[in-house]
Amino acid sequence: MAARPLEIGPVGIRATRTIEILRTERGLAQRQLAGRVTALGRPMSNTMLSRIERAQRRCDVDDLAAIAEALLVSPLVLLRGPTAP
User: Fold this and answer.
1) Scanning 44, 52, 64, 84, which has the fewest C-beta atoms within 10 Å of its C-beta?
2) How many CA atoms lie within 13 A of 83 on its CB side?
3) 29, 76 in Cβ contact below 8 A?
4) Is 12 helix (H, G, I), strand (E, B) or coil?
5) pTM score, two decimals?
């Protein structure tokens, strides 16, 4: 059985955009945010983060939780978007 491509759905796209928006608002470079995520125990390179932000790599739930913690927000903020209640 051939592996099917893992497309990123609308919630995943929203999360990637929100990660980039919040990172930029906080004045963090990708390398800095990736360093924070790594310091929290989830190894992440700036290349991995770049690929997540560009929707070229899926963001699994562990990545999402660590990125949210590094950005000091709830994972729900990343899923709903920066302006959602």
Assistant:
1) 84
2) 2
3) no
4) helix
5) 0.89
